[in-house]
Amino acid sequence: MIRLFTLVLLVSLFSCADSTIKSNHKKEQVAVSNETLVTEVEGMVCSMGCGGSIRKELKSTGAVSRVDVDFDEEKEKQTVKITYDNRLISKKEIVERIEKLNKGQFSVSVIGSAFIESSDSRKSSSEEPKVNVSETSFEVPSLLDILSSIVVQ
Question: CA 141 to CA 116: how far, in whole Å?
């Protein structure tokens, strides 16, 4: 029993002895959302699949904090609002990334953009902070929509 305990103790000590890895990489810059880009995206067939692929692609950059898709199946173009750090990614790169998705399925046009006021500049101002409230909803896609999007691709 003592031998077993000693063996387990030694194995655990030596296995943890060199577990720290030193990195010579520069510290990554932390994304701080400072701009919002509003676009119209043509070619979306559903909110879940198309919106999800756009959201996943943009968030993978590490520079985009939020992607809101206002999907209306009766409209040809869907509104997509992207909140991002303009020091880490440009508007042009955002548009290019969306347009490269799904073998060029989407066409993007920029409606506008706005800078987000930082908390530091608010402190120096006597103005009250502005609060944007957005309503989110979840809609379960119909089986017919899912099957038709699979068949189309």
Answer: 33
Q: At what angle do helices 91-100 and 49-59 cross, to 10 degrees?
A: 140
75 versus 128: which is more confidently predicted?
A: 75
- 77, part of any domain: yes
Alpha-carbon distance of 76 to 73, in angstroms, equals 8
Contact 64, 84 (CB under 8 A): yes
Please check whether residue 96 lies inside any domain of the structure.
yes
Domain extent for 61: 31-118
The angle formed by the CA atoms of residues 133, 61 and 72, to the nearest 5 degrees, is 45
Round to whole Å and give the CA distance between 11 and 36: 53
Name the band, by pLDDT with cuts 50, 70 and 90, for residue 30. confident
The per-residue pLDDT for range 102-126, each reduced to its tens digit, is: 999 999 999 999 998 876 544 444 4
Please state the pTM of the whole predicted model.
0.59
